[in-house]
Amino acid sequence: MPSRAQEPHQAASESVEPVREGAVRPPRGDVPQPDPSPRPVAANDEPGPDAAGPTPDEDEYTTAIQELEDRWRRALADLDNLRKRHARELERERRVERSRTAAAFLPVLDNLELALTHAGADPDAIVEGVRAVRDQAVNVLELLGYPRHAETGVAFDPARHEVVGVVQDSDAPPGTVVEMLRPGYGDGEQQLRPAAVTVAKRE
């Protein structure tokens, strides 16, 4: 005897799990799920603050910074040019000063050459000629700002004299220069060298 087909409501009830009382039925797969983190929408669909471009104040600050950077670079370039120009001028002044000093000593060399050509002449004349050349060289140094110091009988001055010996001399007051061993040239900051002297011993 053929069995009767199950009724529709009985088949549906058999395919669905029974739900306990108080439990929440899970959503079916065909039900659309809500967005878990919906993004807020600005009122009147206006863009947020991040979407906006730079403000006028930011543009003004950027322009000011760029202008300051340009001025700074120009100042550095001007300073470097000034340094190079100063170095060139200083080197040119040194060359001019060396040339002027050498030219001042040319007559001294000429007189020495002349004295050598007369080496076979009277010895007294040669001595006088050498002394004249020496005086000429001393005069050149004085004109260049380096006067000669070769005095004796003066008080010892540590700024101008260098003691190389101390002697007992009853005729000279103590601390007096009694002998000049090597003349000195120049004074103060322009001193080429101090005079080497012997000084009378102090009692």
Structural write-up:
This protein is of the alpha+beta class. 45% of the residues lie in helices and 11% in strands. It has helices at residues 8-15, 56-117, 123-143, and strands at 148-149, 161-167, 177-182, 184-185, 195-200. It has a three-stranded mixed sheet with strand order 2-5-3, with no helix packed on it. The protein has a two-stranded antiparallel ribbon with strand order 1-4. It is elongated, with a radius of gyration of 54 Å. It starts with 7 loop residues before the first helix and ends with a strand.
Keywords summarizing the entry:
alpha+beta; two-stranded antiparallel sheet; 3-stranded mixed β-sheet; single chain; 203 residues; 3 helices; disordered N terminus
Summarize the structure.
The protein has three helices and five strands.
How many strands in all?
5
Mean pLDDT: 79
What is the CA-based Rg, rounded?
54 Å
Oligomeric state of shown chains: single chain
Our count of helices gives 3
Question: Which regions contain 5 or more consecutive residues with pLDDT less than 50?
Answer: 1-16
Helix content: 40-55%
| Distance from first to last alpha carbon | 164 Å
Tell me the strand order in the biggest sheet: 2-5-3
Largest sheet: 3 strands, mixed
Strand content: 5-15%
The secondary-structure element order is HHHEEEEE
**What structural category do the secondary elements indicate?**
alpha+beta
- The 3D shape can be described as elongated
